[in-house]
Structure formats: C-alpha cells, structure tokens
C-alpha cells in the first residue's frame, strides 16, 4: 500500500514537472513569436526605408541623366565622356540596393556623378563663351575683310580712273586736219587723175602733260570701199590688238607747243573717187579722224 502511494507521488511529481516544462516552453514560444514579429516589423521597416531611399536616389540619378541630355557641345571628347557617364548611371539604376552599404555606395556614386556633371556644365559654358567670342571676332574680321576688300576695289577703280585720266591728258590731239592732192610739180590739184602725191596737213596741239621729245606719227587713208592705201614699205600698226596697214608715217620732235605737221603719201594709182577717211595716230593712239571727198 505504501509502495502504491509512493508511485502515485512520483507520477504527480513528473506530471508537475511536465506542466512546468510545458509552461516554460509556451512562454518561450510566445516570447520568440513576439521577438520574431518585432524583427519582422523592423526588417520590413528597414526594407521600406531602403526602397524609398533607392527610389529617391534613382529619381535623382534620372534627373542627372536627363541633365546630360540637355548639355550641348560640339566638343567630341566631351560628348564621349558624357555618354560614358550616362552609361554609368544606367548601371547604378539597375543595381539592387537593399542594404545600408549599397545605399551608401549608391549615394557616393551619385554625388560623384553630380560633381562631374557640374564640371561639364562649367566646361561647356566656358567653351560656349569662347565660341561666342570667336564668332564675334570672326564676324568682326569678316566685316573688316569686306571693308578692306571694298576699299581695295575702290582704290583699284580710282587708280584705273586716274590712269585713264592721265592717259587721256597725255594723249596728243591733232586739229586743222586737211588733205591736199599734189601733181607732179608739187602743185595743189583737185583732180585725182593728175595727183601723184597726197599731203595731209594738221597741227599737233600743245600738251604740257605728255613728255616732250620724239613722237612717231602714223597716217591711215581709207578708201570708200574700206581699203587702206598702203605704204611702199608695207608698214603696219597695232590697233585693238590687231595689226593693220598704214599709209605713211614720220617722226617729229615735240616740245609741248603747237606744231604744224605734214605727212606725204605717194599715189600709186589706188585713189578712187568718193569719200576717204583720214586717221592720225601718235605713239599708236588715235589723235584725229576726218573725212574728205575726192573727185
């Protein structure tokens, strides 16, 4: 009977112990669940924080990316460098930043990119300013070049006009031109058939501009049919770049005063009735032109 009571006491003791152990286990389980709930909530809070932080950083990175798009420069080296920075931004945006270390790295890279962007803005502004200055200088140079070109053209025109005036002023002039037919006794005659010579008289006018000295004078007598009465020596003169025959010529000594001159042409039977044109040249320049009717 005593043994049975002993066994019952042991059984109650074991059951009591099990109840205590179970109570402790339940307490520990509830405490663990509470801790897990707190850890889970904390983890969720941190995860949400990191997500929001990454989203914020990602938004800033996209703004930096678009800022690069707004930068315009013709400098090829800068264009390549800015393209490389945009590629780096694309890589950062694709990065899964779910912890403090990666977020810190993310932010550090973003600050570096922002700093590089600012340096590019400064460089591009400086280049644009230099380009504007160069464009202004080029415009000024082009204006100066146009002005100098206009002045040069004007000077050349003035020079040509002065040369023409000088040439005109220095060109000798002949006046009182007359054509006389002479017979074999050197007497004047009005009939072609009795004329053996033609004398052309004129006055070489005074000219203080042209240099004094020897002057070569040329006579051309042109028939009604435009045939030039030639000289026995077949003398030629250049007119308008073309060699043409002359009738006679002579060299005189000119002293810048009025000088009566006569030039003779020997009739070889080529004179015909009609209007003959007489042209006089000095130093290859036309100084007089007249017409005479011969019968």
Extract low-pLDDT stretches: none
- Average pLDDT taken over every residue: 83
**Helix/strand-derived class?**
alpha+beta
Assembly context of the chains: single chain
Helix and strand layout, with pairings?
Elements: H1 2-70, H2 76-93, H3 100-170, E1 174-182, E2 188-189, E3 197-204, E4 213-222, E5 236-239, E6 242-245, E7 248-254, E8 259-266, E9 274-282, E10 285-294
Antiparallel strand pairs: 1-2, 1-3, 3-8, 4-7, 4-9, 5-6, 9-10
Helix pairs in contact: 1-2, 1-3, 2-3
Written description of the protein model:
The chain has 295 residues and is α+β, with helices and mostly antiparallel strands. It has helices at residues 2-70, 76-93, 100-170; strands spanning 174-182, 188-189, 197-204, 213-222, 236-239, 242-245, 248-254, 259-266, 274-282, 285-294. It starts with a helix and ends with a strand.
Quick summary:
The protein has 295 residues and is an alpha+beta fold. It contains 3 helices and 10 strands; from the N terminus they run H-H-H-E-E-E-E-E-E-E-E-E-E.
Structural features:
single chain; 295 residues; alpha+beta; 4-stranded antiparallel β-sheet; 3 helices; 10 strands; rod-shaped
């Amino acid at each position: 009977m005593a043994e049975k009571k002993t066994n019952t006491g042991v059984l109650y003791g074991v059951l009591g112990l099990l109840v205590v152990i179970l109570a402790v286990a339940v307490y520990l389980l509830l405490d663990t669940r509470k801790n897990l709930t707190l850890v889970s909530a904390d983890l969720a809070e941190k995860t949400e924080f990191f997500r929001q932080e990454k989203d914020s950083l990602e938004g800033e990175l996209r703004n930096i990316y678009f800022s690069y798009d707004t930068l315009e420069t013709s400098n090829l080296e800068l264009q390549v460098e800015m393209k490389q920075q945009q590629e780096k931004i694309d890589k950062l945006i694709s990065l899964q930043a779910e912890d403090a270390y990666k977020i810190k790295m993310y932010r550090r890279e973003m600050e570096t990119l922002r700093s590089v962007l600012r340096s590019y803005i400064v460089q591009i502004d400086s280049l644009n300013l230099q380009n504007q200055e160069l464009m202004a200088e080029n415009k000024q140079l082009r204006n100066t070049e146009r002005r100098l070109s206009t002045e040069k053209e004007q000077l050349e025109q003035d020079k040509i006009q002065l040369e023409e005036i000088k040439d005109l002023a220095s060109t000798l002039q002949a006046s009182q031109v007359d054509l006389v037919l002479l017979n074999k006794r050197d007497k004047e005659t009005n009939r072609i058939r009795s004329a053996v010579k033609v004398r052309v008289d004129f006055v070489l006018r005074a000219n203080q501009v042209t240099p004094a000295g020897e002057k070569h004078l040329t006579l051309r007598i042109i028939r009604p049919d435009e045939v030039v009465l030639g000289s026995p020596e077949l003398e030629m003169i250049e007119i308008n770049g073309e060699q043409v025959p002359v009738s006679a010529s002579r060299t005189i000594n000119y002293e810048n005063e009025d000088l009566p001159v006569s030039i003779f042409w020997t009739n070889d039977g080529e004179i015909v009735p009609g209007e003959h044109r007489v042209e006089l040249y000095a130093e290859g320049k036309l100084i007089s032109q007249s017409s005479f009717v011969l019968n």
